[in-house]
Amino acid sequence: MHTIGETAELLGISAHTLRYYEKEQIIIPLRDAGGDRRYTESHIKWLQFVIKLKETQMPIASIKKYASLFKEGDHTAADRLNLLAEHQRSIRAQMQTLQDADEMLTFKIASYRTLTEV
């Protein structure tokens, strides 16, 4: 079991972010006898997934929806699948945009290198 500080450090996020995720019901940590938050390895893995979703621009509302569906049980599997598949399509579109931009920059950089070598 990890404290909020240990969990934040492990994940490279702030304790404030963990509290926010709790407030938004994305994560529900355990509590010890003193009422302090405790995070299990299962919590850590879930939060790593949440962080990846956030890093790939999934809106908090969608992450909340996914978390809510997960808590409802296996009968929501199709909805969760659809939500993740849509996000994957979004990521792939972002990747294509970045690839196109990289190709354009490669061309421009090569052009400038040619100009500066003269």
Spell out the key features of this protein.
118 residues, Multidrug-efflux Transporter Regulator, Chain: A, Domain 2, two-stranded antiparallel ribbon, 73% helix
Can you describe what's shown?
This protein is mostly helical. It has one domain (4-117): Multidrug-efflux Transporter Regulator, Chain: A, Domain 2 (Orthogonal Bundle), CATH 1.10.1660. Helix content is 73%, strand content 3%. It has helices at 4-11, 15-23, 41-55, 60-72, 77-117; strands spanning 30-31, 37-38. A two-stranded antiparallel ribbon has the order 1-2. Strand 1 (30-31) and strand 2 form a beta hairpin. Helix 4 packs antiparallel against helix 5.
List the helices and strands and how they pair.
Layout lengths: L3 H8 L3 H9 L6 E2 L5 E2 L2 H15 L4 H13 L4 H41 L1
Antiparallel strand pairs: 1-2
Helix pairs in contact: 4-5
Number of extended strands:
2
Chain-averaged pLDDT: 95
CATH architecture: Orthogonal Bundle
The CATH class name reads Mainly Alpha
CATH topology: Multidrug-efflux Transporter Regulator, Chain: A, Domain 2
The fraction of residues assigned to DSSP E strands is under 5%
In helices, the fraction of residues equals over 70%
Quote the distance from N terminus to C terminus: 63 Å
Radius of gyration: 20 Å
Unreliable sequence segments: none
Number of H/I helices: 5
Biggest β-sheet description: 2 strands, antiparallel
Tell me, what's the shape? elongated
Summarize the structure.
The chain is mainly alpha-helical. The chain has a single domain (4-117), classed as Multidrug-efflux Transporter Regulator, Chain: A, Domain 2 (Orthogonal Bundle). Helix content is 73%, strand content 3%.
